[in-house]
Structures are given as C-alpha cells and as structure tokens.
C-alpha cells in the first residue's frame, strides 16, 4: 500500500496508483487483479483508454474473491473531450460505470480542457479524435458548463471528487472563480524534461493535489513513434539519473518516481509487467537529498510528449 494524500474535500487518495493507459485489453483483468494483490489501491483509467471493461473485470474479481472491499479502492476515470456538453456528462459517466461494473467513481477528471463534437457511444467508442464524417470539430460549450454538470454528479453521489487534467494555471484560476466544488487534483505530464515548477507551486498552494503522468518521460511515447520521444535521451539511461540511482542502490525508475513523491506529487506509473508492479509501488523507501532533487529538476527543457497542438493545432499549452 502507498501513503495516503489528503484531498481538499476531506477524502484520502493513495499517493501511488497504477496508470491504465495502453494496458492491453487481454491482459488488463489479470494485471489489475495482480496489482490489487501487490497492494495497489488506485487505478487511473479513462474513457479514452478503451480498456475500462477489462479493468473493471479485474477490480470486480478482486472484490468477489475478498482481496479488497470497494471502499478500500480509489477508482478513477476521465471525461473524454467528446462528452463536455452538459447533456452528455451524466450519460458519459453512466457509460463508464456500466463498463467498470461499479456504482460510483472516486474521481472523475476532465481529461483535457477541449470540447470536441459529441459522438454517440454506439457510433465509435472511445471516439478518440473522431468528431464525425466532416472531420475535426469543436463543441460550443465553455468549461464552466461542463463543470456544473460534474458538480451535479457529486451531489448525486455518482462521483466522490472532480479533477482536472492538462489545465494551465490561467484556466485553473478561472475555474476556481466559478466552481462550487473545487477540483481535488490536477493531473499533468511531469518528468525531468517537463518540470512545470510554477504550475505545481500555484496548484499545491490552492490545496489541489498534483498527479504526475508519464513520470518516465519519453518511455511511454516510444511505442507511439512520438518524434520528441525518439529524439530524447532515455531517462533510464541519463547519467544524472543513473548516478543517483546507483548511489542509493535503486533503479533509475525508482529515482524518477521518488523525485516526484518527495515533492508531494502523486504518481501513476503504468506497467503491463507484473514483476514491475511492486517496485513502482514501493518508491518511498528511500530519500533523495535536496541537491539530488535539484540536479534532477535542472534537466527541465519544457519538453512535452503529449500536446494537443500536435493533434490539430489546439493551443492548450501555448
Ligand atoms: N491525463 C492525461 O492526459 C494522461 C496522459 C498520459 C498518461 N496518463 C496516465 O498516466 C499513466 C502513466 O503514464 P504513461 O503510461 O504515459 O507512462 P509511464 O508510466 O511514465 O511509463 C510507462 C512505460 O514505462 C515502462 N515501465 C514501467 N515501469 C517500469 C520500470 N520499473 N522500469 C522500466 N520501465 C518501466 C512501461 O513498460 P511496461 O508496460 O512494459 O512495463 C511503459 O513502457 C498512464 O497509464 C495514464 O493512466 C494520463
């Protein structure tokens, strides 16, 4: 089990969870079951990952076998861009719950601050970037309207908390001016090549937990042939990281994760290899020095691997 972080709504969230993006559907039930056995309690899913049914199967089998109770788990999903219209938010959540086979979520994020044209579930699910036969199209809905619909889901007890993902400081500031229910967490790309120190400082000062995704930097994006990832030094082989790792008798992966958790961030490393689960979960067993933290942070190059500008020149981070 990992440490628990306090959320601004009084609930607790595990500091370490399992990222579910790209866990293949055929191994997902077994992976999730194995992860629960290994001590994972948080599962970071999303409508966009296309494996909610299989992730849910693993969760439900673990509950049925008495490994864990539902209330001991922290199950997460993310509202995809195609479902931002207030009239689509509840049906989207109901779709997620049906796929998971659960009756509530612990946390439902807005995956991106981008509203795409609605695509019916039976037309294409997950819709990904598909917006209909005409090609890319936005939905005319401002974020606060999506937010009000998410707040209603909290009131109904269908989700315990709301989160935001891939939001800039300016958008968070604006959302906080109008939100009745504050986001509990901001999920962002975060690794030594993209540190985002000011965004983290602002968000943590607002008592919103920062959750790091893609903690291993380019690694997750190599299989997608992402040019920025292909052109970067692999962080597992970066001299700064490997030196620190060997001085602590730890792996490079453990150092990358500890660098985040020691600064108060939550992490959700993904693995499809059962033998890596335990190591990724137990990264708080050693401490980095302040100097080591600084030297890792100094690798910052503002380098993103996940940027909507690359999808269709969408100015999310410009
Ligand atoms: N909100 C968003 O927009 C967003 C975007 C991206 C990701 N996420 C979330 O964040 C999670 C994590 O990010 P990510 O999946 O992009 O990348 P990640 O966790 O940084 O990296 C995953 C990659 O690292 C490998 N790996 C895992 N543990 C390892 C270890 N101990 N040693 C060596 N290699 C290891 C995995 O391979 P194996 O599978 O073979 O072990 C996989 O190739 C996602 O699964 C998803 O839940 C959210």
What is the fold named in CATH at topology level? Answer: TIM Barrel
Rg, Å, rounded: 19 Å
Total domain units = 1
The level of helicity is: 25-40%
Span between N and C termini? 38 Å
Can you list the strand order of the major beta sheet? Answer: 3-4-5-6-7-8-9-10
Q: Output the CATH homologous superfamily.
A: NADP-dependent oxidoreductase domain
Shape: globular
Proportion of residues in extended strands = 5-15%
Quaternary structure annotation: single chain
- Strand runs, count: 10
The CATH architecture can be named as Alpha-Beta Barrel
Bound molecules: NADP nicotinamide-adenine-dinucleotide phosphate
Q: What's the tally of helices?
A: 13
Structure description:
It comes from Kuraishia capsulata CBS 1993. Substrate binds at residue 111. One of its GO terms (biological process) is cellular response to oxidative stress. InterPro entries: AKR, Aldo/ket_reductase_CS, NAD(P)_OxRdtase_dom_sf, NADP_OxRdtase_dom. The protein is α/β, with parallel strands linked by helices. The chain has a single domain (4-312), classed as TIM Barrel, CATH 3.20.20. 37% of the residues lie in helices and 13% in strands. It has 13 helices and 10 strands. Strands 3-4-5-6-7-8-9-10 form an 8-stranded parallel β-sheet. It has a two-stranded antiparallel sheet with strand order 1-2. β7, α5 and β8 form a beta-alpha-beta unit. α1 runs parallel beside α11 and α9 (239-248) packs across α10 (252-261). The longest helix has 15 residues, at 86-100. The N and C termini lie far apart (38 Å). The mean pLDDT is 97. Bound molecules: NADP nicotinamide-adenine-dinucleotide phosphate. NADP nicotinamide-adenine-dinucleotide phosphate binds next to α7 and α11.
């Amino acid at each position: 089990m990992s440490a628990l972080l306090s959320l601004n709504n009084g609930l607790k969230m595990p500091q370490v969870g399992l990222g579910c993006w790209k866990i293949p559907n055929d191994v997902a039930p077994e992976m999730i079951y194995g992860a629960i056995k290994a001590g994972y309690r948080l599962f970071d899913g999303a409508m966009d990952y296309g494996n909610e049914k299989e992730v849910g199967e693993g969760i439900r089998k673990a509950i049925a076998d008495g490994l864990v109770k539902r209330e001991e788990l922290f199950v997460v999903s993310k509202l995809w861009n195609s479902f931002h219209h207030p009239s689509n938010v509840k049906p989207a959540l109901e779709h997620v719950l049906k796929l998971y086979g659960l009756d509530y979520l612990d946390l439902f994020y807005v995956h991106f601050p981008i509203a795409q044209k609605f695509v019916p579930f039976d037309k294409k699910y997950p819709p990904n970037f598909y917006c209909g036969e005409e090609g890319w199209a936005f939905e005319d809905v401002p974020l606060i309207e999506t937010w009000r619909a998410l707040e209603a889901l909290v009131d109904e007890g269908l989700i315990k908390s709301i989160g935001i993902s891939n939001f800039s400081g300016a958008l968070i500031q604006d959302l906080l001016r109008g939100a009745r229910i504050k986001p509990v967490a901001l999920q962002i790309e975060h690794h030594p090549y993209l540190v985002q120190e000011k965004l983290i400082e602002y968000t943590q000062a607002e008592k919103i937990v920062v959750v790091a995704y893609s903690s291993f930097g380019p690694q997750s994006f190599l299989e997608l042939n992402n040019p920025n990832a292909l052109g970067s030094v692999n962080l597992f082989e970066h001299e700064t990281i490997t030196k620190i790792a060997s001085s602590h008798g730890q792996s490079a992966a453990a150092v990358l994760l500890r660098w985040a958790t020691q600064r108060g961030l939550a992490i959700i490393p993904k693995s499809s290899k059962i033998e890596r689960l335990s190591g990724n979960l137990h990264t708080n067993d050693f401490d980095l020095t302040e100097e080591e933290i600084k030297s890792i942070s100094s690798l910052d190059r503002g380098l993103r691997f996940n940027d909507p500008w690359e999808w269709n020149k969408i100015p999310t981070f410009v």
